Structures are given as C-alpha cells and as structure tokens.
Amino acid sequence: MPEYEALSREAVQVEGHVCSDIVTEQEDKHAPSPTLHDKELDAVPPFSWSLLFLLVYLPAIFNGTGSGMIVPVLPIFAKEELLASDYVIGMMLAMNGFGQVAFNIPAGIVCRKLGIKASFCLGLLVVSGCGVTAYFAPNVWVLGLACLMRGAGLCIYTLGRQSFVSAWIPSDRRGRALSGMGGVGRITSVVGPVIGGFVAERAGYRAVFLVQAGFATVGMLAVVACMPTTPPKQKDSSQTACCTTLHDHRWNLLTAGLYCLSVAIMRNSRNLLLPLQAHAIGSSIEQVGLVTSASFVTDASLFWTAGLLMDRWGRKAAALPSTLIMTISFFLLPFATTQYGLMVVGALFGVGNAMGSGLLMAIGSDLAAPLAARSEFLGVFRSITNSGALLGPMLTGGLAEISFAAASVMNGSVGLFGLVWCVVLVKETLVKSTTLHTESTPEVKFAPLSEPSANAEGQDKHEGFGVDIKKDVPGADPDVIAIVSPRSSIIHCL
Question: Which pLDDT tens digit goes with each residue over 25-79?
Fold first, then answer.
C-alpha cells in the first residue's frame, strides 16, 4: 500500500461517528508540518450552533456594533473638531481600507504563529487601543494613524476567525454559518450608527470612540471566557509555508480571487452610486435615507437564504443569482429617475447582495480548509477581495465625474465579466459531508477506538496522532489506515 497522509478537515458521518473528512494525498517530505491551528482544534469541542454563537458570533456582534458606531461620527469629528479639509478626511477614511489590504498577508503569518485564541484577542485588543487613541487624538494625522492600525487589528481578528471557521465548521454547514456571519455584519452596520449618533448627541464626538473601544474589549473578553485554552506556541516555517501555498494554489487565487474581486467592486460601488442617483433626481436627505434603508433592510432580512443555497446546492447556487441580480440592478440604475423607481432598484440591489451573504468568506474558507498554511492563504485571498473596497469607489467615482450612466454601466459590465468567469473557470468548492476524497487512493476503512484510558495527567492516551493499530485496536482489519476517536471526534492517521 502506498504511503498516505490523512488530514483532518471536513466533518462527515462515518459508521455513526462524527469525524473528519479524509483528504488523502501522497506523502510529501517538504509538506509543512501540522499547523498550530490543527493542534488547537483538539481542545475545541465538535461543531454546534450554540458554540458557534459563543465563539464567533458573540465577539462579532460587539466588535461590529462598535465599528458601526464610528461610521457617521468619524468624518464630522475630523471636520468640526480637528478642522480637516474634505480631501484630508477622504484620505483618512481610506486608511482603514488601506490597512486591511496592506496588512492581510503579514496578519496571516501572525495568525499562524500565535494561533486561534491569541489572534482573536490580539486583533480586538488593537481595535480597542485604536479607539482610545482616537479619543485622545490632537490632530487629524493621529486620527488617521489610528484608522490605519485599526485596519491592521481587524485583519488579525478576521483572519484568525476565518481560519478557525475553515477548519472547525463542516463544509455542508459552513455556508449557513458564514451567511449568518454576513448577517451579523449587516445588522450591526444598521444598529451601530444609531448608537453612535445617540452617544455623540449626549456625550460628544470623542465619547463615541471610547464606547467603541469598550465594545471591542467586551468582544475580546467573550473570546477569553468562551474559547478553550490552547497549547503553547510552537516554531514553524511560516514564510516557507506561505510561499509554497501561493505557488501551489495560484490557480485558485486567480480564478476564485478574481471573481470575488468583481463582487467586492460591485458591492462597494453600490454604496456610492445609489446616493448619487438619489441626489441627481432631486431627492431630499430624508428621501436619500429611505432609498439606502430600502436597500440595506432587504439585504439584512434575506441573508439566511444565501446560506441555505450554498449548503444545499453549492456555492455557485448563491454566487450566480447574486451576481446576476446585482448586474441587472446596475444596468437599471440610470433609468431610475423617480423616488419610487429608485427605491425598487435599491431593494433589488439588497436582494442581490443578500443572496451572496457570506459568499466570499465561504469560498475562501472552502479553498483554505485542506491547507496546512490556511492563514497565509486567507491573507492573500482577502488582500485580493479587499482590494475591491479601494478599486470600486475609486474607479466608479472617477468615471461618475464624467458620466453617471457610464459609471453604472461599467459596474454592470464588471458583474457580467464576473458571472461568465464564475460559470467557466471557478470550481464548485462545496464538499458534501457524505463524500470522501478517495480518488487514486486505496479504500479508506474506519475502526472505532475502545474506551480511552487516562494517563497520569488525566488525558486521553489516544488523543493526537500516531496510534498503534495492533495495540489499541486488537483484531482490526490490517487494511485499516485510520481510526476514529469517539471522545474527540478526530480521525487519527496510522
């Protein structure tokens, strides 16, 4: 029998045991050793929705609400109290997006070295510290630096979270979990500005940054309290693993990455073009708010549909209709010359965006799940997709100066390109939990372990790798190459 390495990745049902999908591949002497993330997952209980809420959603709710609070306050604070010009304010606001793009790859290396829990905590700690820095900012340059470092902190936190999700959540539930994550972001982006405006009205602009720092700190404490204790840090060759991963998976980065970039460009351009069209047709500020609200309320109310589509019929089942609806919306936008027509187009934008809730995270997580260097891969992947937050408004805004219709058609053309690209070149990334990856491999058989016995430290002696099949599973078929621990729900390589 050839030598094979079994890597624990996607949860499947095998003979009544919840275990990990076997991704079999020939042994590679130069393959990176198991990441610290893999070892940390031994301390985390098997996936459940309640645990997902505690470990992922709860910190995201606090951090997202705090982040939403400063959205309406930041530019007004910079203009009224720090006396910044509109150009400087625009550059300062871009620092947050630039920080997320520039720090994605370094954040991936940091996440690999520190591990899951430390990455969560460090990212939220940096975000909290930036809120305190903004509170004491004497000028706009210090405020801009706080925005830049806040982007870096968000990189570390979101990369650690996505790397954890990639390894921990089964593939056929990952779509719903990440669409829920997208829904959390949409809801907190609505609730956060309301709280921020309330605080600013009663306690001043600077107080909002302190409250935002408090929300991030509470999110960090939720991670400390709920995330199981992880093993100590171990040395690893992160840079080598990163370069190897980029070389070996450049096709996935090109195909899936370019499609996700096109989606990101459209999403960010929508936020610019909708208010511009409302202003162009003579809508009042209140009416502009109604148009954007119609879009975002529709968006926030339908996000779970995307998760159901992705988990049942595949990621493309959500990607294609989402991209198509967004594309049609851009082509219709120049013809929306009445308030009601614009609200309809805005709601159509919301439907299209909601159909893709969590889509980019799901595709990235699916592609990263089988990899040893998950964090590094996700860092590069997120750098590609986050570039849409910079390219979208920049290209659209520049073209809208010449012709609004041209800017809208340009975004619709980006959507058409993404749609065709996805159909032709992007592979389906959903791995059904009842299917094992057994191409060109011997038949994979499973034998459950006997009841585990405790060692001197009270730990399961079967936990981890390197189980002796003859000693621990007497009478087992000699062709068995993996066993399932009923305690840890982890497949062990033999």
Answer: 333 333 333 333 455 566 677 888 888 999 999 999 999 999 988 887 888 888 8
Distance from C-alpha of 13 to C-alpha of 171, rounded to nearest angstrom: 12
Pairing of strands 446-448, 482-484: parallel
- In whole angstroms, give the CA distance from residue 186 to residue 267: 13
What pTM was estimated for this model as a whole?
A: 0.70
Q: State the CB neighbour count (10 A cutoff) for residue 391.
A: 17
Question: Would you call 182 exposed, middle or buried from its count of C-beta atoms within 10 A (0-12, 13-18, 19+)?
Answer: buried
386 alpha-carbon distance from chain centroid: 11
Token pair, residue 408, equals 């809208």
**What domains lie within the chain, and their CATH numbers?**
4-31+445-493 (no CATH), 45-236 (1.20.1250.20), 239-441 (1.20.1250.20)
Q: Are 355 and 306 in contact (CB under 8 A)?
A: yes
Rounded to a whole number, what is the distance in angstroms from the first to the last CA of the chain?
A: 12
On the 0-12 / 13-18 / 19+ scale of CB atoms within 10 A, 471 is: exposed
Distance CA 335, CA 94 (A): 31
> Which residues are registered as beta bridge partners of 447?
483
Q: What is the number of alpha carbons within 13 Å of residue 285 lying toward its C-beta?
A: 0
